[in-house]
Structure formats: C-alpha cells, structure tokens
Write a structure and sequence with these properties.
The protein is an alpha/beta fold. The protein has 2 domains: 254 residues, Rossmann fold, CATH 3.40.50.10540; 81 residues, 2-Layer Sandwich (formyl-coa transferase, domain 3), CATH 3.30.1540.10. It is 41% helix and 13% strand. The strands form 3 sheets. It has a 6-stranded parallel β-sheet with strand order 3-2-1-4-5-6, with helices on both faces. A 3-stranded antiparallel β-sheet has the order 7-8-9, with helices on one face. Strands 10-11 form a two-stranded antiparallel ribbon. Strand 7 and strand 8 form a beta hairpin. Helix 1 packs across helix 8 and helix 8 packs across helix 9. It is elongated and about 85 Å long. The mean pLDDT is 94.
C-alpha cells in the first residue's frame, strides 16, 4: 500500500525547528521531500550527526542550492513548477529580497501550497524581529503560568512554540491541499510561533478572554481542580488526577480517607479548590505511608487516573510505550542503526514511512539536476559558479 502522502512533492526551505517539524509530517507519511540547503553551511539545526538533526530531518532528500545566484534561482524556479507544497520560515523581507515570496512563485505555479512559518506573523509591528522559542514562551504568557507559585517565570522543558507552529503549519498545508482538489488553486498558508503557542495555551488563555482571570503559577497542581497534582509516596512521587465524576470519592476510599467525603470543605469542585491546602495535607500524609507502585496500581484499579513521574530512560523502558512502537529504527550509511521518535498517529493498515535517516549534505544534488535535464558538464559548471 502506498504511503498516504506519497503523491506529493515538497520543497523544504526551512532552517529552524518549527519548519522541520512541519515538513516531518509530510516526510514520515511518504511525501517526496527535497531539502534545499546552502552549499556553504547546510542546515543550522544542530550537528548534522547529532540526535536532534537526525530526528528532525529523516526521510528527506538533500540538494545544495545558492538562491542568491542567478543560475541557482533559475534551478529553484524549475523545481517550483512541479512542487505541490513549499515550506519556508524566512523573515518577510528576506524572502521578497530573494525573489522566493508567494506572489512571485504563484506566477510560476498557481497550484503551489506555500507555507510560511514566522516568529510573530507576516504583518504587525514585530514582524521583522528575530524570534526563538525561549523568547516566545515569555511573550505568549507560558512562562508566567509554568512553575511553582511565587517562583518566578519558568521555561517549559521543550521548544513548545516551535513544535506547535510546525504541527499547525502541516495541518494548514493539508487543508490547502484538500481545498486544491476542488478549486485547482494553491493557497498561502501562514502561522507563527506566537499564534501557535497562544492557541496551545487553550483553557488558560480562555480564562482571561471569557472570565477575566489572569492565570497564575500552580506548580504541579492543576490550576482549577483540587486534589489533582503531584504527591510524594514513600519512595517516589506519583501523579494523581481525580477529575471525573465519582473519582474523588474513589480516591478517598482507596486512601482510607472516607471521612473527607462528609466534610463540607470538600463536597464539590469549588469547595475542594477553596480548601486545597488542607486537602493536600490530608492526602500527602496518607500517600507517604506506601510506595508509589502501590498507589498507582490501586488507584488505577479504582478508576482514578494515576501514574509515575518518569525520566526519559524510564519512558522508553515502559511496557506501554514499547507496545506503541513510537521509537522507530532507521539505518544511516555512516552512523549505523539509529532510533528516532516516531509518529503519534496510527492509520490502520498503514505504517509511517520513517524508512530513511537524514540525508548527507547535498547527497541528491546531481540526481535532482539530472532529472531537470542538466547534463554532466552543466552540473560541473554550476559547481564552479558556486550555484550548487
């Protein structure tokens, strides 16, 4: 069975994390992705042999191309004619200066889905500012709600605005491709780290927009639901989340705290939230009496969500994670067998096409040029001119 996206050709001009995250959604599901890299420096997302680069750029082809040279730009335009999707994350002024903006490329290929990922958006007073995830976590408000109360702003442990923007960009590209089946026309798809991270903040952002509440740091506790959080068992912390109907009652019965069920301070969500500190002291005293494994097993049996707090080695050693197969193995021609982070989506009857490691710099340049009609002497001339 052909991979779901195998009929699409994708040009990848991205050079920072959000772009490769977006393109990876196409590469993993079988699209023919051509990564266009600078002859001088290649991509800038970490060491080429490092885990980050290999995880971000698997499953692509690579060609080197100097977009600042006349011959290089002409080659690029020829590639655009047959492309379905193009991803870029240049600043707005840069792509226009290079002659690779949407208005220019639409004249070459009206069917092209052109995807732009920026830090702040294509318009607005900050559009030309440089941006990375660290800055966006602060500006979008995430750092103000992460960490312990009164601790001060805390950065999340992953590049969450990059990952969010990449996934939203890929979703936008696929919507545009579906629309193209009806209209025959491409579309300019745009997103930004700022928009994407605000969207990911979800109910915390809505608390301000609808309720006028400014969310504060809640640490390891849920910001609005009491008794949901981290508790220290006798040997390790456990995560407990009695959010659904009847789950608080089940928690109390497993913990041997049935007396809390008749206490007016804990009769409903609002009361428990008001008296969170007292409730947490009662629960903490009980949980400290037994090891984490005891509570995890007993609470899950009672229908109360509960789990461990794993380090990354423990994550991939967990039998449930192993059964999901999210660690995927590929073969690299120099580095040998590698394990990468697979797709979190299952399409019944289809395996994600994570079959190839990240390409070597320019590994497919000659093959691509030959497919465009360039002869061997032409290729040598292009190399002498530093066009490729």
């Amino acid at each position: 069975m052909a991979a779901p996206l195998s009929r699409f050709r994708v040009l990848d001009l991205t050079h920072a994390r959000a772009g490769p995250v977006a393109v990876r959604q196409f590469a993993d599901w079988g699209a023919d992705v051509l990564m266009i890299e600078s002859p001088a420096s290649g991509q800038i997302t970490g060491r080429r042999d490092g885990s980050d680069f290999q995880n971000l750029h698997r499953g692509k082809r690579s060609m080197t191309l100097n977009l600042k040279s006349g011959p290089g730009l002409e080659i690029f335009y020829r590639l655009v004619r047959d492309a379905d999707v193009l991803f870029e994350n240049f600043r707005p002024d840069v792509k226009r200066r290079l002659g690779i903006d949407y208005a220019t490329l639409r004249e070459i290929n009206p069917r092209l889905v052109y995807v732009s990922i920026s830090g702040y958006g294509e318009e607005g007073p900050y559009r030309d500012r440089p941006c990375v995830d660290q800055i966006m976590q602060g500006m979008a408000g995430l750092m103000s709600i992460t960490g312990l109360p009164e601790q001060g702003p805390v950065r999340a442990g992953i590049a969450i605005s990059d990952c969010a923007a990449g996934i939203y960009a890929a979703q936008g590209a696929m919507m545009a491709l579906l629309e193209r089946e009806m209209t025959g026309q491409g579309r300019w798809v745009r997103t930004s780290l700022l928009q994407s991270l605000i969207a990911m903040e979800d109910f915390q952002a809505a608390r301000w927009l609808m309720d006028g509440e400014v969310p504060e740091q809640a640490g390891n506790e849920h910001p609005t639901i009491a008794a949901m959080g981290l508790f220290e068992a006798a040997d390790a912390p456990v995560n407990i989340a009695p959010a659904g109907p009847g789950q608080f009652e089940s928690l109390c019965r497993v913990a041997g705290l049935e007396g809390l069920l008749d206490d007016p301070r804990f009769t409903d969500y609002a009361a428990r939230s008001r008296n969170r500190d007292v409730l947490n002291r009662e629960l903490s005293a009980k949980f400290s009496e037994r090891p984490a494994a005891y509570w995890i097993e007993r609470l899950n049996e009672a229908g109360v969500p509960c789990g461990p707090v794993n380090k990354m080695d423990q994550v991939f050693a967990d039998p449930q994670v192993e059964s999901l197969g999210i660690a995927r193995t590929v073969e690299h021609p120099r580095l040998g067998r590698l394990q990468l982070v697979g797709q979190p989506i299952d399409l019944a009857g289809t395996e994600p096409a994570i079959a190839d490691a990240a390409p070597e710099l320019g590994a497919d340049t000659d093959e691509v040029l030959e497919s465009l009609g360039y002869g061997r002497d032409d290729v040598l001339a292009l190399r002498r001119e530093a066009a490729v």
